[in-house]
Amino acid sequence: MQMKIVKWALISGMMIMMGSCANKKENKVYPAVHGLIQRVAPSMAKHVIVDSIPPENGKDVFEIYRQGKKIVFAGSSPVAAASAFNWYLKYFCHCHAGRAGHNLQLPEKLPEVKEKIRKVSPYRYRYWLNYCTFNYTMSFWTWEEWEKELDWMAMNGINLALVIIGTEKTWQKTLQHFNFSEKEILDFIPGPAYQAWWLMENLEGWGGPVSQAFIERQAALASKILERMREYGMQPLFQGFYGMVPYALKEKYPAHRILDAGEWCAYRRPAFLMPDDSLFDEMAKVFYEEQRKLYGEASFFGGDPFHEGGRAEAVDLTLCGKRIQQAMQQSHPGSTWVLQGWLGNPSPKLLAGLDPEKTLVLDLFGETLADWNKYQPSWKLSEGYHGMRWIWCTVTNFGGRNGLHGKIDSTTLMLREARNSTYGKRLEGIGIMPEGSHVNPFMFDYLAELAWHDDLPVPEKWAEQYSVFRYGKDLREARQAWHILSRTVYNIPMQYDEPQNVLCAKPSLHVINAAPWGNFRIHYSQQQLIRAVDLLLHCSRELEKNDAYQYDVVDFTRQVLLGELEKTYDDLVAAVRNKNIEKFQAAADRFMALAETEEKLLSTRSEFLLGRWLEAARKLGSTEEEKNLFEQNARMLITTWGYGRQHTVLHDYAHREWAGLIGSYYLPRWKIFFSDQLLLLKGKKPHPFDYDAFEETWTRQQDSFPVTPSGDGISMAREIISSLK
């Protein structure tokens, strides 16, 4: 008997040790994914296994299957395993970790996986981020926001992403080698809201100077971001050295070939150091060495000479491209130069000097046939970027503006055409490059999932399925609503961008758009949109506590108000044309009432609060002076963009329909305009009003706005929709 007890004890001990070893082995596989699951769905963590599997023909793959009582998320990389987790969340648990609004109420018992799910990505690269995103959305982010962002990226399979945070420190260290004082360096570096356009060679110093504390904070944040990216197996796209230098370098090194690069939107560009000048190789070497010391190794580097213009007439672009790439290869052998395919760049002459195997072109705006491309895709017009490897990308958003829109049919068709074309042989990835990223969540989810579809989905069917995991329940009215949405606001003609709210436009009787470029006209049925929101409101009893549902109802109702404001504006213009004072007053009253209603509606969601944007900006500053400067950055970017001539060119480009901004900025402009028009209709002379002065004064203020939401968005939406039916 005693021997049996001893034997059983030995067996039990061995089993415990084996179990312990198994757990240790289990936790060694993609530990970053274990951490992600713990953050996103902590109650699921103990019921899953994360495992690794080989890629298929060099492409990422994931599997989902049952092993005993546990669910296995297996992937050929950490992001593939994280994508398996996301797929299980969506299609088994009916949960959704979205970019705006979320639904993470897991079922009490995890759903079984009866048959193994296996997905292979057709793409080597799944790319994410635009330079502009770092400012129109991320200007004032801390690690709290970035950790969530990186988790979303992993769950959506992103394996190549732009990282420009911390480049201030790289440039500071570089310029210290070239006789620049600290003041001169800080004069070169822009404020926190303008980093993107600095690194794209559009401007320098604007919105600054920043403090050393800010530079150190951003460098530390960059290191943390890069550490997590590497844990996920993501490749960072670093800023490369491509000839963009401080304008002051011309004076310090007059014997060298340093060009005046001209202007961009009334801003003086940084200078351009000719790549065949001896100083270029010297600066490039220092830049890459300092970058490596700060942030480690990388294999991908970005940088676009003569982005959106610049003086390139006297430049041998072929030699220029060759020398830039040579300097990159000398510092990082085998690395890849990543260029943006945008507005005719990169030019055929520049590409002629490059090694096709060490070059990758991001084909922006792939979902649209633009007039500047003679209504042809850029990849087709450029003959597949003349043999370079390329990634098909969408832009989906300009300026971070929050008008709902999508081109879901043309996105699907254009991607299919690109893949099946002669140039599809060199197509190596799919990318999402929005100027602003925390708006319009539906399109981001659709685009991210395309990375795991060899056979592309039917858009309207996918939209119906989206309603199930977005809200956690399969409701007939929600499916119907999303079917309508996929045929209206998310399926506008490909030649149009998102509709802009006329409320955000500088007041005039001749408004074409609120932002430079684009149009404020809607290109779908307003009545169909109202019908879709009404159908969603019929689901309120089942979904009223669902965060994603609450967000969508408020956002879609905001879009309804946008359409009503457009119609009311047309009534205003007609009344003035017909000199009908009574109709003008009625239309003006309705316009202001709609604007006030929108302000109140948006106050119910934190995503639409001006106060949160300004608060984040102030928190980033180290002193009261810097806090005020950063708030000024935040206010300028979404209104005037700059002052003087810059104000004229880019005003309201990044306008936002936000509570606080409507009440303090857009609505006061229209009230003054209506008052002046009424005087004119009565044959009286209005008082002169300087709109530019009003706007610039607003950017320099420090008055506070609410940072927490208030009110019941569902009830308000129901009242608004009922009044329009």
Describe this structure in words.
This protein has 29 helices and 17 strands. With 725 residues, it is of the alpha/beta class. The protein is globular.
SSE topology sketch:
Elements: H1 2-28, H2 31-40, E1 48-52, E2 61-67, E3 70-75, H3 78-91, E4 117-120, E5 125-128, H4 133-136, H5 143-155, E6 160-162, H6 167-175, H7 182-188, H8 195-199, H9 212-232, E7 235-239, E8 244-245, H10 249-252, E9 258-259, E10 263-264, E11 267-268, E12 271-273, H11 278-295, E13 300-302, H12 317-331, E14 336-341, H13 348-351, E15 359-363, H14 378-381, H15 383-387, E16 389-394, H16 408-420, E17 427-432, H17 441-450, H18 459-471, H19 476-487, H20 526-537, H21 540-543, H22 547-577, H23 581-602, H24 610-620, H25 624-637, H26 645-650, H27 661-681, H28 691-699, H29 713-724
Parallel strand pairs: 1-3, 5-6, 5-17, 6-7, 7-13, 13-14, 14-15, 15-16, 16-17
Antiparallel strand pairs: 2-3, 2-4, 8-12, 9-12, 10-11
